[in-house]
Structures
1.
Amino acid sequence: MGTMMNTAIQGACTSSGIQRFGAALALSLFAASSCRPEDPRSIQRLDSLEPVALSDGLVYVHPARSRAVRLQLSSDPAAAPRVTRFSVGPQAVRAVRRPGAEEVLVLCRGERGAPGVAPVAATLVALPATASAQPRVYNVGSPFNAISVTSDGRFAVVHYAPDRTLDRLLFNPNEVAVVDLAAEPSETNPRRRTVRSFGGIPTSVQFSPPFTIRGESRTIAVVVSSSYVTLIDLAHLDRAETSVRLTLAQDAREIVPQQLLFDAEARAFYLRATGSNDVYFVRLDDSGTPPAEGNDFRASINQIGAGRDPSDLALFGAGDARRLLVVSSGSSEVRVIDPRSNAITSLALDARADRVLLFEGPSPRDPNTTLRALVYPSNNVLSARAVSFIDLGAIESRGSQNLETVQVGRTIRRALALPGRGTMLFEHEDVTSAGRLSLLDLGRRTTAPILAEVSLAEARFNTDARLLWVAPNGNTRVGFVQLDNFHPGEVRLDAPVREVIALPAMAGAPSRALAVHEATGGSVTVLDGNEPRRETARRINGFLLADLLEQGAP
């Protein structure tokens, strides 16, 4: 019977150490429980936000303690992990990894102030990659509750997300703060501003890929609101934003954006929204003399009929062959749209679908690897049992001749795409077990069942896409599928699992995943990301308690 290695962090490495630590911890928690009934310290002290994965471990953020704890694994599996602690601001509400860097960004709403408690400004804290470096603290000014970061990690936009529990007498929901993460904090970094409003409240912030505008690479932040979007040029934050309305001023409809699809080649984006059967095409035009005020580009908008209830968009082709593929769940059809002429080619589907996947691969009739599309249902609301393949070559002239329907056999409840592996996983309702999966081969267009006791809802990939992890909440077993040969397996652990987090690849280190357990003091099991086995698993306990007694009561 396999055993696992166990590691306890600081002060709990021997049995006597465990006893002294446990006794002191019990006294500490007893004292905390003696606080006033309305004082939440006794239950909040060790609560943390969702852990954030770095290449070598996890970062936990404790809002009640204004503290972040980094668990850092060594590239040597036998070496003890390192625990580093950082101070953050009060009321941390979001923690995300900065793309392209070994940093974690922590958004803190600050302290309002109370008798004997001084107010503290809201901040965005960039936790460094090494313990020797100091966190960068950006004063964002207002108690924002959401953060969006560009894909290159250069800029962050902090803003308000719709929330009825912001715990402030007054706040401006259209205020944002733009942080240049590559620069040090200063009086002009972050740059705070209020975006123009037509009565709505921002629901999200999304970022364009680099657009070439007047010979300069620009990233555009798109602040999404009901019935309009606002464009902020991150390369020129001193310039006013550009607002684009999705309806006329006298139109009372509520158009709620759901999907933005950027087209760097056309310097444009497509927008799909509930409340409209059109797709909105917004293009940035830098021709002619720049406007006297505001940005040096103009935004034009065009509406394209996309069928009833458009549910997903995809772009393919280049230059004059650039096309938009639209699947509409309400009309059981796919539309191929030429955005330059608005010409539409419609393909009727044999089964309803609401998602589209572009992939490179062969087909049973064509061994050549070329761009193709799969349209499929992503939930059981559509009650669909089939998917459709579309060969995109000469689609406008061949029409439905390029369409093939493949029966899956059972109502599709959930779908998980594995285009890099040439496959798609489907989950079905199953009255005889907790769940059942089907594996669709995108090249052969054949399906095969995989029996399963779990749902795909919590499935996670290794960063190298070699393994698919499934960890039912509260179960002591972690399941996995090897995506090279679709061999399933499982590993028995010593404690119930909350989730599995696959660590990003790190040079010189083996592929690893962390099974996170529910434990007050912190508990994870390190699993081999290539060949997970109980014998090579290593459990680490107590890393969140390492300095609890040293810090005293909050």
2.
Amino acid sequence: MGSNQGFRSMDVSSSISIAVIGSGGAGALTTGNFLLEAASSAGWHGLSTRTLGPQIRGGEAAALLRLADHPVECLPDTFDLLIGIDWLNAHRFGAEIQAGPQTLVISDPDGGEPPPAMSQAGARVVEIPLKELAKSIPDGRPNMIALGIAARLLGFTVDQMVAPVEKNLADKGAAAITASRHGIQTGYEAAAGLKLGKKLAPPTPSTAKRWLLSGNEATGLGAIRGGVRFAAAYPITPATEVLEWLAPALTKVGGALLQAEDELAAINMIIGASFGGMPSLTATSGPGLSLMIEALGLATSAEIPIVVVDVMRGGPSTGIPTKSEQGDLNVAIYGLHGDAPHLVLAPQTVTDCLFTTQWATYLAEAMQCPAIVLSDQFIGQARAAVERPADVSFIGQRSVATDISGTYKRYALTANGVSPMALPGTPGGQYTADGLTHTERGTPTSGAEVHAAQLDKRRDKIEDFNYGDHWATVEGDGETAVLTWGSLTGAAREAIGGDKSMRLVAPRLLAPVQPARLAHALDGVKRILVVEQTHGGQFHKYLRAHYDLPAPVETFNRPGPLPITAGEIGRALKEWR
């Protein structure tokens, strides 16, 4: 170990960022999870996400964390601490994991060399033999040595770091826990004399219950809170965790999850369940959403409420399953053939996945139409240490026809466009529900007047609905506006950083469009920066198609896999201004 290169004066910081890197099976992701859990237990906020190779399993892996004394919603431009359990294929993360002149890099001399982006920016590289130290412990693992090193550098005690390990390894037996404790202690001692150069500010005292959850888990909880009791899906990265969380959770509330043979079967199953009166959901990613498009049109025409969660990833085709992107915007809004009005919503943070999915379920049930929720890999698979999300009262209440007398008109032209739905078995409530153009009774027809009337009905019921203030996040009233959506909202918020000359506008409701609301949100703006994670500027083109933007516009867009950081948005704002 170097003798002097690890020492720096200690500055108090509101946040510290850590990357733990290793090849598949090295335990880098496990180390990151334990760090976040220990920080949460100690009272800090935090955000942790993972970056993997395109092969999903095996190969390179890294846990990326940011711990703070305040809620955090994005990762930094550069990291304060890098720990390389080994550096095999770590060069593939070179553009994602950047070191700076204040970065401390812990490297195992037997694990290869740190890539240039992680070691040649003035960073301090300190060698500690993680694997050799692990071999001195029966059943020892290098990632537990790394965990002990991180504990010391971040100011945790050994007991604080051991606590989450003991909890999560309880089913592995006493030997595994003993080996892990010994490894953490050994790493803690190996880091004696090292200084990170900064220490995390003490957490703000709070009696509120702290939650540790991922965006995909929050999505599942939002669905259940919204009334969903049936889910059907085919596993796909990065949406599978939604289904894994829902499977046991649904049984606790009298519901069920069914794994379908493919995405087409999954969406048709939830259409059938919803037709029977059960609020239903499926979760997928871009390739699966493409397969579901025809059935989404059926749900629109037959006015059957369903929720489809799309956890977006890099595309097109198989693309980059393990990386985030916002490239499914066009297919979600425009992909259905014919005039098929439906809902498209986008959560903005890990906790907002809960709210937005619950709201989407409520809206779908209230208006008897499909709702697509556009999450993405970043917020879907990120884990956050947060205050307990507030309970909201959105529970889907479908208009159901009962006590039917006379001729039942399932698709009656009502004042608000929503016609009561008879559930199967309701006396007098028989009707045909399919994708053909139909009369008010549901009888198939090719009549032009009836076709136009039903198109108007389906359009008006979602355009005239009162969405309230939930349609978007609007913060500040400055003359420069950052206009963004989805998971980039947190980075944009941090880039603005309370600057009163700027404002943030991030629509949560993408379809139907809200021109009057956006005009009000942008009133007085003299310049607009549109920020999105697509190659072709899909969000900017969507805005140009549907809104009269009141000021000159600049765009900052690029595709995945590189996340767009707050620092980059800040620099783009500076150039634009």
3.
Amino acid sequence: MSDTDERAGKADLGEARRRQKAANSRVLGPVSVRLTVASALAAAAAICSVVPFIVIAELCRELLSASIDWDRVWSLVIVALGILGFRGLVQSGALLWSHMIDAEHQYTLRQLLAAKLTRVPLGWFTERSSGGVKKLLQSDVDALHYLVAHARLEFVAAITLPFATFVYLVFVDWRLSLILLVPILAYAFAISRVMGKGHAEKLAAFDSLQSTVSETTIEFVDGIQVVRAFGQPRKGHHRYQEAVDDHAKFFTAWVGPITRLEGAAGLLLNPVLVLLIVLVASLTFITSGSMGAADLIPFLLLGLGIGGTVLSVGYGMNALRQASAAAVRLWELTEADELVDPAQGPTPASGLVRFEDVSFGYHADRPVLRGITAELHPGTITALVGPSGSGKTTLARLLPRFDDVTAGRITIGGHDIRSLPSAVLYRSVGFVLQDVQLIAGSIRDNLLLARPDADDAALVEATRAAQIHERILDLPRGYESEIGKDARLSGGEAQRLSIARALLADAPILVLDEATAFADPESEAAIQDALAVLVADRTVLVIAHRLHTLEGVDNVLVLEDGRIVEEGAPADLRARGGLFSRLWDANERALREVDELETTADPGTKEVHV
């Protein structure tokens, strides 16, 4: 490894430690003081668990003495029983309190995260799958249970118990005590090899692969009906299978050697091996007369248990690492940028939209959009066109404030959208995207998101215009039908429901991400009819993925590498012979190829001959 790589590795390790420290402070800080008290109780319980064995060892030594003091014997028995009972009360009290702390902490943390999600930009959600968000709010919060309710208490007990035992054994015979440390130190050395360089990076890679498996599982299950309907189940299965295979290969390559080494290391603390070491050493001391036979009893009663205590720490390390990684992810969520939502602000008097020298980047050193200047007038449709990755979707989603611009500004009716309260902004700007989002609830609940005070007449008017009213009436409970239970909508039907929701909101400005891109022909016709009603007399910004859908568009903004390189009416841009013209020609060729394939299909078998 070069000096540069070594310095980079140390810097990454230092950053990881800083993040972990910040995460522990932010996520666990509110319960730290109470956990410290619970840990003190756990330490007291650990000492109390050692004392009865010490008393029993002393009892055995007394019984083996030449002159037995029976009063002392019975006193020792009573003391052992009393301390054992006291230890049970203290330990159960510490565990009960830590679990009460954990329950309160999880409740408070979930409230905090839920409130945080109401303040992050909408773009935060578009960068993450539903599985990833679920993992944060459910799995990662659940993972903190071990960190709060168990980890600190178990760690304190695991340190206190062997330390107290070792101190007592040193007073019995310091030489045998030091020999007892040999297998423990050998185990610690072996484990340090397991946790050597690169372990943190591999653990992060493993967590990433686990997240991928979780996300692809959700995608596969959600999309299985579609891929089977089109007779391509293997295509839908491919990404899921690939994620599982990658996870299995990595896990086998990483964990295999570690498991073998951990198994060998665990043998060092095997009670039988420790017993043999203690017996061999003690026989040497006893035969030489430097140690009494009775002095071996404390080592047999207490010494063999030290190894088990050390092993218990190792067994809890995996849960601790997972909980610590979860704490970092939750800390990252709490540190996510928030959109400033003014409590009061102006109300735009018109639907005139201006992009004024707008620049944007998800990272400061990697801009996605640069110097965008454009006007969108009421009653007109403006289309965003460009190659994949040119910034079309990013630009369109800046208007409803999925993210804030990093330079320049966007105005509605002359007012910077950052000065508008969110309630005012979303009364002014509506959007219909390809990825339809419906909440768990009834059809009515989903529609009323747009206008909670809407009556039945308004709902019916919106759904009729969106060509979805008749389909809703066919459902078991009509508008009261629950999404996912007694209402299973196709992609085109869900899209028309989202259009009805946008109609109900009656926003003067609309952002459309070519809503018919993945619809079947029947749904596409219905969606186009619904869109014709939706866009009337509004300021409309359309993300155009398929150029043949640009009929009726007033203006086209052509993007390339985050800049507007052409602007004008579709016919004028075609005549110029620039980027738009080339994209149009490519689109036309693609349509001709599709037509040719369809005409060569055998009507009887519906198979395409290529």
